[in-house]
Specification:
single chain; 167 residues; alpha+beta; 4 helices
């Protein structure tokens, strides 16, 4: 298992944490954020499937799961709430999945292993950005722009390849 992590901060203070975890020989190195987000103190408020338009290297729709989260903390004796936007997907050579259940990824992994004898190497890509309550949709729009700009720099698989493989 290999991973990379970057933190992006814009001049206006917008912050995004980007993580990529590449599965090694152990397929259990990926787990759903529905486990680790609550485990790290975040409450999952809403989970939705969505897609993000990517222009390069060819135009395609990237399937993603977006999760709105919240947590409370005490500051100066007052209980405060912070919200967050967590967007993730799975990618392998010729395959993309934004399925929050993880079933699509596991089915593809099993099917490829049985039919070719090759263990597919999936990557789990996530973007997280904290925000104030009420700013979730605006924050998601900023995260979408960051994803659209950054994904072509590190992800080779596109929707076009997945569509061709499904035929």
């Amino acid at each position: 298992t290999s991973y990379g992590s970057r933190r992006y901060i814009s001049p206006d203070g917008f912050l995004a944490q980007v993580n990529v975890v590449l599965m090694g020989a152990d397929r259990t190195s990926h787990h759903k954020p529905q486990y680790c987000l609550p485990g790290s103190g975040w409450r999952i408020d809403e989970t939705l499937r969505d897609s993000i338009h990517i222009d390069r290297p060819v135009a395609y729709e990237l399937p993603v799961t977006k999760i709105f989260v919240s947590r409370q903390f005490e500051k100066d004796g007052q209980l405060q709430t912070i919200r967050g936007v967590y967007v993730y997907w799975y990618v392998a050579d010729g395959a993309l999945s934004g399925d929050p259940s993880g079933f699509e990824k596991m089915w593809s992994l099993a099917r490829t292993l049985v039919t070719t004898g090759v263990l597919q190497r999936w990557a789990y890509v996530s973007y997280f950005s904290p925000c104030n309550p009420g700013q979730e949709q605006a924050t998601f729009e900023r995260v979408k722009k960051l994803i659209a700009a950054s994904v072509p720099e590190f992800q080779l698989t596109t929707g076009e390849i997945k569509a061709a493989a499904a035929r």
